[in-house]
Amino acid sequence: MKTKFLGAICSLFLSSVATGNAAGVWADGYVTYKHPNGKLVNRECAMFVPAMGIGEVKLKCGDFSTSTTEFSTRQVNGQSIFSVLFRDMNGAPAGTVARYQGSYLRGSNQAIYYGDVFSSSDSQAKLEGEGSWTYAGGFMFSKKIGEEQVDPEAKAEAAIEAEAETGPVRTVDYVDLNRYLGKWYEIASFPQSFQKGCVGTTAQYSQKANGRISVLNECRIGTLDGSIKTATGTARVVDRETNAKLKVTFFWPFSGNYWILDLDPDYQWAVVGDPSREYLWILSRNPQLDPMIYEELLERLRTEQGYDVNRLVRTLQPSSPGPQ
Question: What is the domain range of residue 34?
Answer without folding.
Answer: 7-150
